[in-house]
């Protein structure tokens, strides 16, 4: 038998979450964001479950080519665009769409003198100051694209910095106003909304929405749980107890004796550590399920193992099932305890973790 930790990927949950996106943005096309190996869920596995989406968005050219070769015919958008002129050949050959966000990309596009075949998403920096042309640069960049015979369709896009924060609605309004001003009355398709904006700002839905995290069943909103949003977890990381120790009062457990027992108690040792992608900074108290019952992690997370408190789960022993996150144990709760986000936990599952469907 192999080491018992695994990530179970649930295609039905992905499909369900896509339906939730559609319920919130019924008039928009959906560009499912499947970068970073579909947030850890596996590119082709996720694409298959999300095949009803009108588009896919990701960063990695090789992954985009793999999608095309696997037979997906919808829009496939490269969110950071291309990095050198040679990549344009692949983009053209595989009919990929590309973001254009800086003048060097415009210049590379102008160096390609061919008939019109490229679909471009022109990105505005509406305030996040990450990628995109400033509002001052944007009109000229748009004119250059329009004048380029290699460009077939242009979609205008931007990205929000604070869509997930309910006390920062003014910043969304400012970014939206900036985008609307830059886009003017132009009759061109538009794309703005990530998961948080899909849920909170219908006025930003436009032609294409770009959901990522909500498709995977994690909440993009700090004060609303995935369950409240009707989302289902698409990844469940489970393992088993591989050893049990009995601690006496003041005995330490794990590296640095970061946890010490204040009474006699049993702890279970779970096959799963930071080399599997479990967050090393998860402190004592981080929630975990053993035999479907809620308990807590205790002590420091090791590379390959972690300790759980079995005080209240008397019938647990070697072989008992453990859920680190997923069904019954929201990834967002584990992430919050560890001082991070569901995004990071999902993306960080290690290559050595077996993923099963
Ligand atoms: C440009 C862009 N659009 C959409 C998304 C999806 O965001 P989320 O996972 O918050 O829905 C991302 C993710 O970082 C992104 O960079």
UniProtKB/TrEMBL annotation:
SMART domains: Ala_racemase_C. The active site is at 35 (proton acceptor), 255 (proton acceptor). Keywords: Isomerase, Pyridoxal phosphate. It is an enzyme of class 5 (isomerase). Residues 234-357 form the Alanine racemase C-terminal domain. Transmembrane segments: none annotated. PROSITE patterns: ALANINE_RACEMASE. The modification N6-(pyridoxal phosphate)lysine is found at residue 35. Its cofactor is pyridoxal 5'-phosphate. One of its GO terms (biological process) is D-alanine biosynthetic process. Gene3D superfamilies: Alanine racemase, Lyase, Ornithine Decarboxylase, Chain A, domain 1. Pathway: Amino-acid biosynthesis; D-alanine biosynthesis; D-alanine from L-alanine: step 1/1. It catalyses: L-alanine = D-alanine. Its EC number is 5.1.1.1. NCBIfam families: alr. Catalyzes the interconversion of L-alanine and D-alanine. May also act on other amino acids. Belongs to the alanine racemase family. This is Alanine racemase. It comes from Nitrosospira multiformis. The lineage of its organism: Bacteria, Pseudomonadati, Pseudomonadota, Betaproteobacteria, Nitrosomonadales.
């Amino acid at each position: 038998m192999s080491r018992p930790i695994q990530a179970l990927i649930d295609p039905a949950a992905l499909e369900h979450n896509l339906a939730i996106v559609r319920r919130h943005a019924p008039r928009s096309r959906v560009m499912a964001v499947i970068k970073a190996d579909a947030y850890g869920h596996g590119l082709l596995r996720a694409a298959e479950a999300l095949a009803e989406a009108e588009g896919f968005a990701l960063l990695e050219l090789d992954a985009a080519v793999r999608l095309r070769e696997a037979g997906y015919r919808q829009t496939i958008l490269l969110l950071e665009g291309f990095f050198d002129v040679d990549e344009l050949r692949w983009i053209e050959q595989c009919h990929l769409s590309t973001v254009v966000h800086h003048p060097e990309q415009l210049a590379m596009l102008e160096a390609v003198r061919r008939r019109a075949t490229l679909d471009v998403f022109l990105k505005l920096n509406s305030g996040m100051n990450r990628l995109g042309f400033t509002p001052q640069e944007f009109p000229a960049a748009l004119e250059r694209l329009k004048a380029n015979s290699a460009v077939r369709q242009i979609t205008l896009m931007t990205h929000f910095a604070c869509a997930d924060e309910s006390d920062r609605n003014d910043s969304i309004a400012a970014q939206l106003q900036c985008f609307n001003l830059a886009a003017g009355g132009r009759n061109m398709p538009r794309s703005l909304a990530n998961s948080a904006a899909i849920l909170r700002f219908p006025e930003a839905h436009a032609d294409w929405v770009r959901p990522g995290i909500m498709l995977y069943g994690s909440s993009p909103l700090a004060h609303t749980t995935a369950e409240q949003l009707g989302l289902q977890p698409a990844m469940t990381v489970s393992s088993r107890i591989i050893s049990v120790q009995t601690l006496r009062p003041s005995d330490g457990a794990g590296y640095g004796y970061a946890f010490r027992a204040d009474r006699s108690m049993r702890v279970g040792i779970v096959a799963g550590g930071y080399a599997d992608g479990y967050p090393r900074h998860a402190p004592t108290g981080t929630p975990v399920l053993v035999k479907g019952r809620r308990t807590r992690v205790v002590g420091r997370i090791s590379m390959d193992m972690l300790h759980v408190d079995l005080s209240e789960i008397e019938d647990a022993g070697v072989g008992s099932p453990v859920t680190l996150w997923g069904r019954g144990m929201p990834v967002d709760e584990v992430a919050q305890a560890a001082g991070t986000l569901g995004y990071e936990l999902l993306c960080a599952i290690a290559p050595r973790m077996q993923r099963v469907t």
